[in-house]
Amino acid sequence: MSTQTSAPGDAVPQPLVVRTVPLDDLGGRGTPDPAGTPDPADLLDLLPTDAPLAWVRRGDGLVAWGETLRVEVHGADRFARAEDAWRAVLAHAVVRDEVRLPGTGPVAFASFAFDDDSPAGGVVVVPRVVVGRRGGRTWLTTITAGRIGAAPALADVVGPRVPPVAPGDVEYRDGAVAADAWQDVVAQGVAAIRAGEVDKVVLARDVHARTQHPVDVRWALHRLARRYPSCWTFSVDGLLGATPELLVRSEKGLVTSRVLAGTIRRTGDDAADMARAAILAHSSKDLEEHEYAVTSVARALEPFCSSTNVPDVPFVLHLPNVLHLASDVTGVLTAPTGDAAHPSSLALAAALHPTAAVCGTPTTAARALIARVEGMDRARYAGPVGWMGADGDGEWGIALRSAQVDADDPRALRLFAGCGIVAASDPAAELAESEAKLVPMRDALGADEPA
Ligand SMILES: C=C(O[C@@H]1C=C(C(=O)O)C=C[C@H]1O)C(=O)O
């Protein structure tokens, strides 16, 4: 069943029955499966064409499909409303979880707009079926309205494998701001920095794609996951991508955030790229950009944590298209007192969003500058995307290296990319960097067979 509600708490199916069973001895690699059921070793292979949900990295993670409940939220309190809705769902849930790992039991996927005023708002999807994998353990969760019945079996909830369909020819055209004109947007950002309005601002652009065939999101997901194994490949409500940036993971009182800022394009030549990595690691412009982003994350986490660990120097993250300065910031959540619980991963994501990696410093002025000069609605690009479990633990990425499929036209997509701008930024170089950041999604829509 699928229920639409914009008022959290409305129309929660009662009771909601959640069952998690292990799949450890089912369909493992090399196990002959007479029913032809896909191998859960590759989670993405399980997904149906329609509205696939995914959060995977290096073969682990969650895939899901079906909609037991969908909640749409809007406005500045969209995160809090989403959390209220999730709690209302849980209040009516009967849970039998035989695996008890992060990601087992009830799970919601969600994605949120970057901007408080965006019509894109946010969406929480409680799927009907979830298959998860973590450290060699695989499980199946079903979330249905009704009564507790027999333990679910994979063969009953997964259809025959329909191979992903290629998008065919893809036409690209300018988005809200043409590529050339976007250099003026960057120049306005630099001018605002020099005028003292902000220290850093992140400016983005979109590109429109039109595919020959309706987009089969799974085609793109497979390609993203294979080419960008260190990224989090995600799909929620038509927003898909492979982000290298983890806004926050919260697990058993431990929080982690992978902060990126400071980028250099790769050349394709390994020796030259090693030299570029060294240049990046010593570039004062990129180190400045990075410092703003790390500080914004550390400051936002501090009120929730009894201790935090902020690395002194970033490492260089190598991706096939770009190199980034990266820092893994960690913290221990302050132990709850009395009946209080830890803040949920979503509450932490709400407190962190938007970091200086995707907005700028100071936040309020950078937000206002973006709204004034960027010339587009970012929608859910650069907003939090991820999943959360019943205990509030979960993982939220920043929706970068991403595209949004038009809900009314499955052949139309918007691709997005943005760049951190500081006083020393050069508009032409930033345009080139934005092109490099569009590569993952362009390749994901490529015509050749997935490798
Ligand atoms: C805004 C994007 O990326 C962000 C900006 C970066 C930069 O300017 O160096 C690096 C990583 C991300 O934090 C994007 O990919 O669209």
UniProtKB/TrEMBL annotation:
- The enzyme class is isomerase
Q: SUPFAM superfamilies, from UniProt?
A: ADC synthase
- Name the family: Belongs to the isochorismate synthase family.
Keyword match Isomerase = yes
* Listed name of the protein: isochorismate synthase
Q: Where is the composition biased (Low complexity)?
A: 31-41
> Where does the record place the Chorismate-utilising enzyme C-terminal domain?
180-437
Q: Catalysed reaction per UniProt?
A: chorismate = isochorismate
Could you state one GO biological process linked to this protein? salicylic acid biosynthetic process
The record's listing under NCBIfam families reads: isochor_syn
Q: Which UniProt keywords apply?
A: Isomerase
Stored InterPro entries: ADC_synthase (IPR005801), Chorismate_C (IPR015890), IsoChor_synthase (IPR004561)
Source organism superkingdom: Bacteria
- The organism encoding this protein is Cellulomonas biazotea
Query: EC no.?
Result: 5.4.4.2
